[in-house]
């Protein structure tokens, strides 16, 4: 029951393993920035979606009071501040999507929706403040 000396175990050569490692490195180099952009975009979209109910509430407040002066967070009909909506003052909705758009961890990228009332009581919204760093995600 002796084993034959001619049989040997086959495996991968060093070159084959190095090629596989190089392919994985190239895929990671391409995939990581795409994934970062995806997560930033999803945080911005979630923040803007959360702000939607506040925009509606500020519109109702303006319709009831005729002015934006007392349309603050926690006053009827504007709800209190939440996770991504950090506050509402005179109708201006402060937002913090908890992202770092410019890859500078020292910078907190916050922005705000600011209401503009035009003729006929029509309200439009502008994005203001520090949104320039996140412009590619708006």
TrEMBL record:
The chain crosses the membrane at residues 12-35. It comes from the Bacteria. Keywords: Membrane, Transmembrane, Transmembrane helix. It holds the Pfam family N_methyl. PROSITE patterns: PROKAR_NTER_METHYL (PS00409). This is Prepilin-type N-terminal cleavage/methylation domain-containing protein.
């Amino acid at each position: 029951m002796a084993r034959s000396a001619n049989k040997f175990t086959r495996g991968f050569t060093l070159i084959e393993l190095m090629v596989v490692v190089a392919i994985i490195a190239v895929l990671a180099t391409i995939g990581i920035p795409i994934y970062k952009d995806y997560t930033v975009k999803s945080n911005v979209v979630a923040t803007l979606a959360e702000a939607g109910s506040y925009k509606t509430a500020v519109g109702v407040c303006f319709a009831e009071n005729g002015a934006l002066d007392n349309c603050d967070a926690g006053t009827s009909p504007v709800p209190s501040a939440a996770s991504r909506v950090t506050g509402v003052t005179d109708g201006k909705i402060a937002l913090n999507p908890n992202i770092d758009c410019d890859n500078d961890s020292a910078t907190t990228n916050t922005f705000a929706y600011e209401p503009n009332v035009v003729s006929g009581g029509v309200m439009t919204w502008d994005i203001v403040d520090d949104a320039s760093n996140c412009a590619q995600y708006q």
